[in-house]
# Entry
Amino acid sequence: MENISIVKQHEGHSLGSYRWSNNNLICNLQMEPLVYIDYETHDYNLHFNFGLQNNTEQAEQVTITMLQTNKPVPQIIWQSGSPNHRFTKSSLIIEPIPEGYKFDINIPSYGVIYLSNTMWSPLTPINQRFHELEKTNLLESIKYGLSANQQDLLAYKLFEKRDLSRPLICISSGSHPAEGDTIATIAIAEWLTTSGHQYTDIFDIIIVPILNPDGFIIGTNGCNTNGINFFWEFLNNEPEICPEAYYFWEFLKEFPPNVYIDFHSYSTQGKSKTFGPYVKPSALYCGSSVKDAAQKLARSLQTIPGSKAQTMFSPSSMPHKITQEFNTITFAKYHLHQRMGESGMRETALLTIQKIMDAIDPSQLQDQILSPYGSLNKTIIDNFFQKCFIGRYYLPKAIKKVLGF
# Structure
């Protein structure tokens, strides 16, 4: 269509092949590798992000048809007048069709509108917000490595020197760029540097808002620039193809956390998904006091109204490896949901971290971290039961694969 140009040069742009049929723009989603790991398949090919520019003096209406099969139809289209701002909820009406779904958009004279089926948050303003918070001198940035495309990997600590008598809480987001979960880490950082500052007298806290900066720039849904979805396939020993995992792992060796929470968010899944944490079976933790503490924290999170906990165990995933190496209590993922809206996501993230902090008994975590990073040695009994648990996980999945299920 001569009057309309497609804009795909901004951070996070994501659009597959497309064609025009009069004023109908027919699009495919941009595809990235599926994750085949631990006898499971993870498909993150869900989202689009592009702009439409009207090159005429007349307002133009465009019908956008998104082609997809076996994927959820979004309930919301998000839009922005600038690619450098978080996209906001539109009032566009989405019509499911056999080929996928479609919606109409009006573009004013010489106007540009950016569209997505997710609450897109660009990288640049996220970094700018944390740089602003750093100027308060209440948090300090740590460059812990470089991404595959040479972007800085940044963490922010809210302590001067590690106090080993205090539990260390690590909070992260941004491994799956399209999910909008950085709303959580921004909200928590703002709160901890203002009205929640008293918690920094009890805990040492580290925030890692962007685990996958390249994905935010090139517009992937779940992968780094080399096609690695390192949440599920945590290649912490392969710096050439997944430096994001490698450097984060080295950073955790320097600062092994007592508790780790990694925020994610549901987007297009709608009412089929409920917000809440992934929790680990207590058998995967070492030491009775740590097992008790993990169960106590999980129960605390389950008191958040409307939330639903899920048992998560994937031996190749980032949270499993963190727990196995350090004995860290992990809630990774903690899923928010975009249907909450920005304010609801912020409020839920703050309630989640307060629940965790209020439920922690530091005495239960004094001898938590495994050797050589801490004083705890894994017992023969813990080692035996954990290996049995992993075997029990793999065996039925392997049998199903052999039988063709």
Q: What stands out?
A: The domain at 4-116 is CATH 2.60.40.3120 (Immunoglobulin-like). The helical segments are 123-134, 182-192, 213-218, 243-254, 288-301, 318-326, 341-359, 380-403.
